[in-house]
Structure formats: structure tokens, C-alpha cells
Amino acid sequence: MCFIMADCGDDDSQYRIKEGDCIVMKRGDIFKAAQIQPKKKVVFEKQWFFLDNAVGHLYGTVFETVSGGTLQPQKPKDTESSCDAKEAGTDNRNIVDDGKSQKLTRDHIEMFKKQGLKGQQIIQELIENSSTFRDKTEYAQDKYIKKKKKKYENTVTILKPSCRILAMMYHGREPGKICHLRYETLAQMLTLANVHAGSKVLVFETCAGLVLGAVMERMGGYGSVIQMYPGGGPVRAGVESFGFPAHFHDTLHEFPICHVNALLSGTLHTTGRDSSADEKQSSMVEEEKSQPDATQQGSPEEQSMETSAGDDTGQDQEKTQEEKRKEAKAQEKKVKLEEKRKKLAAAAALLEGRNADGLVIASRFHPWPVLMGLLKFLSPSRPFVVYSQYKEPLIECYTKLKEQGGTVNLRLTDTWLRHYQVLPNRTHPLLLMSGGGGYLLSGTSVVMDRSKPTCSQQAEEPAPKRLKLTDTEG
Predict the structure, then answer these.
(1) How many whole angstroms separate alpha carbon 377 and alpha carbon 397?
(2) DSSP state of 178
(3) In the sheet where 200-205 sits, what is the strand order?
(4) Secondary structure (3-state) at 50
(5) For residue range 178-229, what is the model confidence (pLDDT) as tens digits?
(6) Are 102 and 130 in contact (CB under 8 A)?
(7) Residues near 417 by beta carbon (within 8 Å), at least 6 away in sequence
(8) How many whole angstroms separate alpha carbon 220 and alpha carbon 247?
(9) Dihedral (C-alpha) 146, 148, 149, 154: value to the nearest 10 degrees?
(10) What does the alpha-carbon distance between residue 275 and residue 258 come to, in Å, rounded to a whole number?
């Protein structure tokens, strides 16, 4: 029994907010990612507050802001029972929206806020001073209260980051950053690629790190993830929002996509072309160290003819300090180059085996060159999935894969999701929705048998038809 209680205590601590945690704030359908830092002001939906008082509470707790920007857990409301027992009309045909039904003005509401009235109390005052509220139907009254709650209630819900919540946050705020990828499409990608703990997955994405973070979350810190990045360096903004532990990042490896052909041809050995570039950078750093020394050797001779001996000693001290700073910067650059070389060698060693268990591609670039290069690193009978906002690039990939072979079970699908409002006597689909969730191309890699290409082609050709002879008289 003691062992069970200890386990329960450990599990409870995982779901409590701690200082330094990455969180997601929610108000209605709006999300925002942040980090718990002491005495740091956070601005969310035109309101500012501090997250210090949220430490120690469970994730999913609803907080309300009080004077001074402090947060406190929201207490159960007793005023909702009075609102439920309100009078309601039969229809809204006699209600005229002329702007004169509300007796309270903006000055009254500002005065209530200065007096310290909470959002629910302000809503109650608005209901009591409305001349048409009791004539509205029950559904119209609920809609009115919901609208006023969204405007005057200063509440915020703190959630634990997950791939679903972060996908909804990015899609609601900046969908272009993630190529308009919706969370149900992201879930299908993880399923079609068979992402699980202990596997080796290749990821190429330009979705602000959201797809990479979702793969790492699904793997749970076991296995290895190789991020193939374009350009100058990898983007990890979405990965940092997940708030993974340190051992999750130990499973992440990075490799530039521009060196894939060199690795396949065998010209890139462990350090490869990056090592020569790093050696050039290190030699440039050494030149930078030597150049200031040459200039500084002549400067005291020129200054000695105009300045006193005391000024010379002060300048010498400044020069020595500058030299020490430059040496420290040069040493830091060397250490960074060495770390970069080691990471590149580790990623290249993982790729040289060509035994990856899955491939996930989601980018704004044309997927065919990337897919053609990365498919060679997959083991036989391993799944791959490619996401694109448009279907035309995936159709081209589909036809080319059919022509060259090496893949089976090719499927080109699209997803369509629509939310429904489920309420008594008012269940209907929501009016506002996104037009599409993108397209997915999935398949399985196989080994091609190139020993008898001609025989297979002859077997596939249909046999020529025989000419039918007709009987002739005579």
C-alpha cells in the first residue's frame, strides 16, 4: 500500500505547475504559449498579469485576475443558479435593437471595475438593467450571457502543452507558419508513419518545429529522431514550446539536407564537407586573433610620442583586456565548432546504416526532390508520409513513385473536419470553419528486384490477338 501511495504522489507532482515550466494559456478559443518565470509580466488578450501564483496548482485550473495582476483560482459560482431561474419570453419578434434597452453606460461599467467588481457581478448588473433581457427566449439569453462573459470575465486557464493544443494554437493565430496543418491531419501523419517509442524516424519539416515536437512527444524520449533541416540551421521554436525534459533532446539529431547526396555517394565521411568549412572558420578566427595584435603593436609607438607614461600604462591594460576577450571569444567559437562537428558525425553515423523506421515530410518546398533523397535511408517495409497544403505536388510524387517502383500501398488522401455544437434543441454544425486540412501521401518502402527487368516487362505486355478467319464460299 505504501508503494501505491508513493506512485500516486509522484504522478500528482507531474501534473502540477512548477517554476520554469512551459505552459499554454487559454481563454475561449484563443491560446498562447508562455513560460513560468518569477515576476514576469505576461500580456494575454489585452490583459496583463503575473504567473507566480499559478505555481503549485494543477494543470487545467481556471484562474481569475485580481488587482495588481495577480492570479487566484476561480471559486465555484453560486450566481449561475439565479441566472438559470430567470424569466424567458416565447420569441424575439417584438424586440427592437435600437441601443436604448441598456440603462448602464460605459462610465458606469468603468466605475464598477474601479470598485473591484468581478466579471460575473458586472454581467449581473447588465442583466438587471436591461429592459429587453426578460423578453428574449431562453436560447437568446444564454447567447447574451456567453457574449458578456467573453468580454468582462477576466479568467484564464493554464494547460500543459501537447501536440494537439499547440497545433490548435498555431492554426488559430498563425496558420501560415505551419503550412495550414490542422491537428487531425497531424494525428494521421503520426499514425501513418508508425511513430512509436524506440524507433528511428527521419523528419523534414518547415512548420516551426511543430511536427518535430509531435514526433518527439509520441516517442516519449526513447529511440532517435533525425531532423533534416534546410538553410542555415534548424528551427526549434515549436519544440521549445513543448517543454520536454533534457533526456528528450538527447534523442534528437540534426543533419543538413544539402549534404544528403554527398552522404549517399560516400564523399561525406563522418565530419565530411562540414569539417573543411569548420577548419576554414577556425583559421579565420585565428587570423582575427592575429590581426588585432599586429595593429596594436604599432599603436603604442605612435601614441608614445604624444602621451605621457601614465597614459601608456592605462592603454596597455585596456589592450591586454581586449586581447583576453578576443581570446575567450575565439575559444568559444572553437568549442562551438567542435560540438557542431560531433553532432554532425553522430547524425551521419545514424544515416549511414540506411535503416530508418519511418519518414515524415511536411514543408512548403516541393516534396519530390526531398522524398526521392530520403527514401533511400528507409529500411524495407517501412512507412513514409508526406504532407502538402496542395494536392498537385503530391499527385506528381504519386505518379513518379508508381513509375520508378520501390514503394507499395500508395495512398493520396485528404481530411475534412467540421465541428458541431451539441446542445439541447440546438445541435448544428458551426458556421465558421477552415476550408481544408491539406493532403497526405503515404506508402511503404520495398526492395526492388532489378535482376530480371526485361522478363517482367515482357510478362506485363498483353499477348497479340489472333486474326479471326471468316469462311468464304467456293
Answers:
(1) 18
(2) G
(3) 252-256, 224-229, 200-205, 358-362, 383-388, 439-445, 407-414
(4) strand
(5) 999 999 999 999 999 999 999 999 999 999 999 999 999 999 999 999 999 8
(6) yes
(7) 182, 184, 433, 437
(8) 10
(9) 160
(10) 15
The pLDDT tens digits for 231-276 are 777 877 788 899 898 889 999 999 988 888 888 887 775 544 444 4
- pTM, rounded to two decimals: 0.75
Grid cell for residue 191: 499514425
Q: Is 65 helix (H, G, I), strand (E, B) or coil?
A: strand
**Percent of the chain that is helix, strand, coil (3-state, to 5):** 45, 20, 35
| Residue 372 burial by Cβ neighbours in a 10 Å radius (0-12, 13-18, 19+) | middle
Phi, psi dihedrals of residue 387, rounded to the nearest 5°:
-110, 140
Nearest to 65 by CA among 57, 77, 53, 80: 53
Cell numbers of 46, please? Answer: 489585452
Cα–Cα distance list, 410 to 187, 193, 204, 414, 466 (Å): 19, 13, 20, 14, 37
341 SS3 class:
helix
Task: Give every CB contact of residue 395 below 8 A, 6+ residues apart in sequence.
Answer: 412
Task: Provide the residue type at 196 as one letter.
Answer: H
The count of C-alpha atoms lying within 13 angstroms of the C-alpha of 389, restricted to the half-sphere facing its C-beta, is 16
